[in-house]
Amino acid sequence: MAKRYEIVLKRNLCDRVNEYVIYAPLVAKHCRAGQFVILRTDEAGERVPFTICDYSREAGTVSIMVQEVGLTTMKLASMKEGECLQDFVGPLGNPTDLSEYKNILLVGGGIGSAVIYPQGKQLKKEGKSFEIILGARNKDLFFKLDEFQSFASTHIVTDDGSLGDKGFVTDKIAELFENGRQFDVIFSVGPLGMMKFVAKIAEKYGVKSIVSMNSLMVDGTGMCGCCRLTVDGTIKYACIDGPEFDGSKVDFDEAIQRSTTYKHIEEKHKCNIRG
Ligand SMILES: Cc1cc2nc3c(=O)[nH]c(=O)nc-3n(C[C@H](O)[C@H](O)[C@H](O)COP(=O)(O)OP(=O)(O)OC[C@H]3O[C@@H](n4cnc5c(N)ncnc54)[C@H](O)[C@@H]3O)c2cc1C
Ligand code: FES
């Protein structure tokens, strides 16, 4: 019998991205696609949010796919199967509801592909009509491609042309529309700049856009204000009101400005974590 928050399985998916299967039966019992958890690796650790990418209610496990970008994600990468996380709180946020749409386009940029993975799995289960676009800087940054391709028709784009078509996800969206493809919603997850332009292109083609906002978070319960956004001129909190919002209503410029507030400090910081 696994221990609480034990890493029961850890596997490398691609450069600096690992999948962790965590024993967390209460989270597994209640979670749905689109929700996330906040974990701490150890007692002195920071609280960091990750999307629930998969789960097994029977086995009591939850999967997360994590890109190493800083302190906590590197600490996590150094942990081994059999070790336990300090906390694993969830499910948090609102589940995705795409039930009103008939033809759906899922778009994942970089690690954003981890966030659209559960949507793809769910839509396939529901027998919905949908296509997928995955984008990354180069061919080494993709993962679970076979699975994505088994969910639906999957278009791949890379900045350098090393896999799929050369270009950005927005080029591929435009190409699909110009070729007469019809979608009634574009669900996108990726860097803020990418989601801003996906929302604009959706507007151009008269299609609804839903974005999943990966704002910095601390408590995940709407109290600290860290994940504050302006949506349709009103204040929203990504952790309790989201993480998904109507892309045409999100003030992306403010979100980008807030996400880079400490960039000048981060740039000066000499990181010794990797030795
Ligand atoms: C709802 C939600 C779901 C998420 N799902 C996933 C997921 O499934 N897989 C995954 O790998 N990541 C996901 N993220 C992002 C993840 O939480 C951050 O990468 C993580 O907090 C970084 O922690 P760190 O201590 O390693 O990095 P830090 O040392 O805190 O930061 C390192 C660098 O990463 C940047 N960064 C930190 N947090 C974020 C963030 N939230 N978004 C973008 N850049 C950030 C920092 O600005 C800095 O430049 C999600 C975020 C949210 C809000
Ligand atoms: S994370 Fe604190 S209000 Fe959302």
Would you identify the CATH H-level superfamily of the largest domain? Nucleotide-binding domain of ferredoxin-NADP reductase (FNR) module
Q: What small molecules does the structure contain?
A: flavin-adenine dinucleotide, FE2/S2 (inorganic) cluster
Instruction: Specify the number of helices.
Output: 9
Return the CATH topology of the largest domain: Rossmann fold
What is the string of helix and strand elements? Answer: EEHEEEEHEEHEHEEHEHEEEHEHH
The structural class is alpha/beta
Biggest sheet strand line-up:
11-10-9-8-12-13-16
Domain module count: 2
Question: Based on the structure given, which CATH architecture of the largest domain is correct?
Answer: 3-Layer(aba) Sandwich
User: What fraction of the residues are assigned to beta strands by DSSP?
Assistant: 25-35%
Major β-sheet profile: 7 strands, mixed
Name the overall outline.
globular
| Number of strand elements | 16
Mean pLDDT value = 94
Helix content: 25-40%
Low-confidence stretches: none
User: Kindly, what is the distance between the CA atoms of the first and last residues, rounded to a whole number of angstroms?
Assistant: 36 Å
Rounded to an integer in angstroms, the radius of gyration calculated over CA atoms is: 18 Å
